[in-house]
Design brief:
The complex is a heterodimer of chains A (485) and B (86).
Chain A lengths: L4 H19 L3 H6 L1 H5 L12 H15 L13 H10 L8 E3 L11 E4 L10 H5 L5 E4 L2 E4 L9 H5 L5 E4 L2 H5 L5 E3 L5 E3 L9 H5 L5 E3 L3 H9 L4 E5 L11 H11 L3 E4 L1 H20 L5 E2 L4 H10 L13 H12 L4 E6 L3 H7 L6 E4 H10 L18 H4 L6 H9 L8 E5 L3 H13 L8 E5 L15 H13 L9
Parallel strand pairs in A: 9-10, 9-12, 11-15, 12-13, 14-15
Antiparallel strand pairs in A: 1-8, 2-5, 3-4, 6-7
Chain B lengths: L3 E6 L2 H5 L8 H9 L3 E6 L17 E3 L2 E3 L4 H14 L1
Parallel strand pairs in B: 1-2
Antiparallel strand pairs in B: 1-3, 3-4
The chains are: A alpha/beta (485), B alpha+beta (86).
């Protein structure tokens, strides 16, 4: 969820400026000028020590917006060169996150710390509770030896003065698989072998240091070419923009797409296929099955939870089926998935039917750059209408519900919902895989990497509550899945 | 006392730059102020095209006062200020 206000605002503004530069008569020059346009000479410095640092950081963020890793920048290459390279690029790679390490400086390392509130009391519960002998008394106050400390936080809990605190590193704390670590130099690093691209670190960092590597230039280039560019919008897009999705379709066509498909169309296929598969597996005596449409969860299975694989549905994701339909309808087209999260970038990279990913934020930036007023657009219908259940796929519980609604006998299914991957829920999944069944007798496990579902994805624009309300009211006006052919 | 009018810009720029989160005002204002304050969505107020482009969006108008980089808290504070002045 987008809870880091100003940093998100800044990232979106930079995207708008990159797109405007691309659309201008001098892309390279206008890209080079972005830091200067945003922080002109004489401006009051909003965040950092001086205007030069501000510009340097904006330059780094622009590098990510152009689709390059910030870590590899040696500061000698100008933004106009990056812009040129972005234009010449014909391929993207499978690393979708990049860290603006200059922003990590303000963030202390993860440790337990005794504050000045320590009264140097006689009882010294912190010292007696520590199993690792990490607490000693120096000059009448408690001191923690970080070499010995295991960060169990027992001392934090027992101090009667609440004088001991855990200093958090938000990106590290948010990562469910321990892929983000601040190294000795104090910079955050992502271990791509472990990273499941869930995007939680993007949402967690108050400095906005973690960026998605944007493919926006590649998409704009495709729009300028002779090829047709077809967009596929995630079900969670409803409520992310003003107006309804029929107006959104018109707005997207005005923004440069040749046609727009709802991924909910594929969700209807996923629900029906998964329902069939569920019945078969239950008939074969399997105790449970898990869903398979969340890209973050699929990466988790691959990298950290292979033992659950036999229980994971073989059904493909809604996006997979949608892309297959699009490529059949437009064989030579360039396909773009409009995504709530970074995890889908990894899924799309592995699927040859999908060329690029554009996040909700990036699409918003495109509308702003092209000055498209969505609420003023006419409505354009979709070739195929989708079911109420498919349109709720992006809300936690929506997938299990649609599988249930697709069954002939709805009473055979008992859903268990994992609403967000974190250290605890991953542990729970490990236990379920080990036992081969759910302890509560449930037989379908829906896994959503983000709390709230796709509407809680890192690149969403609207808050959970409002977007859920808007999706619900749209879904209520749609047909039941059993009536959709 | 005249009714205070709150206009939340629903133009694309305002919505994308943070205005989405202001939809809460439509529930919150009637609950908090009853019929003393009237809240409505408004098509693009035209404010994003002047004054440093989109960087001050989202915008909300409370009577004639413009709240830029609007948040729910900032809008409520402006309403309170105007009620106090009346």
């Amino acid at each position: 969820m987008n809870n880091i206000g100003q940093a998100i605002h800044l990232k979106k503004e930079i995207l708008v400026r990159i797109i405007k530069a691309f659309l201008s008569d001098n892309f390279e020059k206008n890209t080079r000028l972005i830091p200067f346009d945003m922080r002109p000479k004489g401006i009051e410095v909003p965040y950092r020590c001086c205007v030069y640092k501000e510009r340097a950081i904006i330059k780094d963020r622009t590098i990510a917006g152009l689709g390059f890793p910030i870590e590899e920048d040696d500061e000698t290459v100008s933004l106009s060169d990056y812009a040129k390279q972005a234009l010449e690029r014909t391929e993207i790679n499978n690393r979708h996150l990049t860290v603006l390490q200059a922003a990590c400086k303000g963030c202390a390392t993860n440790r337990i710390y005794v504050t000045d509130l320590c009264q140097g009391c006689v009882a010294r519960p912190c010292q007696s509770v520590c199993k690792f002998g990490a607490v000693s008394i120096q000059n009448g106050k408690s001191v923690i030896d970080n070499e010995k400390c295991k960060k169990c936080q027992m001392c934090v809990k027992v101090c009667p003065y609440k004088a001991i605190v855990k200093i958090s590193v938000p990106c590290e704390d948010s990562c469910p698989v321990g892929a983000v670590k601040k190294d000795q130099t104090g910079f955050a690093n992502i271990d791509y072998e472990k990273c499941i691209n869930c995007g939680k670190c993007i949402s967690a960092c108050p400095f906005g240091a973690v960026h998605e590597k944007s493919q926006i230039i590649d998409i704009l280039k495709a729009m300028k070419s002779d090829k047709k560019v077809i967009a596929m919008i995630a079900p969670s897009v409803v409520g992310q923009f003003p107006g309804n999705i029929y107006q959104l379709k018109t707005a997207m066509i005005n923004a440069g797409f040749d046609d727009v498909y709802e991924v909910a169309q594929g969700a209807d296929i996923t629900a029906n296929t998964e329902a069939k598969e569920f019945t078969e597996r239950m008939d074969e005596g399997q105790k449970f099955m898990t869903t398979s449409c969340c890209a973050g969860y699929n990466q988790l299975i691959k990298k950290h939870l292979p033992e659950i694989k036999p229980f994971v549905s073989d059904t493909k994701t809604p996006l997979y089926y949608t892309a297959e339909i699009v490529k059949k309808d437009f064989p030579d087209s360039v396909t773009v998935f409009i995504s709530p999260c970074v995890a889908k970038r990894a899924e799309c990279y592995e699927n040859e039917n999908i060329n690029y990913v554009m996040s909700f934020e990036e699409m918003g930036a495109l509308f702003i750059a092209k000055q498209i007023e969505i609420t003023a657009c006419e409505q354009t219908n979709f070739v195929k209408e989708c079911s109420k259940q498919a349109r709720r796929f992006g809300i936690t519980g929506g997938v299990a519900e649609s599988v249930k609604s697709s069954l002939n006998d709805e009473t055979i299914i008992k859903p268990h919902i994992i609403n967000g991957l974190n250290k605890e829920s991953i542990k729970e999944l490990k236990t379920i895989a080990k036992c081969g069944e759910c302890s509560n007798g449930c037989n379908i496990v829906e896994v959503m990497c983000c709390e709230g579902g796709c509407i809680g994805g890192n690149a969403t624009i609207n808050n959970l509550k409002t977007s859920q309300k808007l999706i619900d009211s749209f879904a209520d006006s749609s047909e039941d899945i059993k009536k959709i052919g | 006392m005249e009714k205070i009018s709150v206009k939340v810009c629903t133009g694309t720029t305002c919505f994308v730059m943070g205005g989405a989160n202001l939809q809460e005002l439509h529930d919150l204002i009637p609950r908090k102020y009853g019929d003393k304050v009237e809240v409505s969505g408004s098509p693009c107020l035209g404010l994003c095209s002047i004054n440093w482009e989109y960087s001050k969006a989202p915008y909300v108008k409370v009577n004639e006062a413009v709240v830029n980089e609007a948040t729910v808290e900032k809008v409520l504070a402006e309403i309170d200020k105007q009620i106090g002045n009346n």
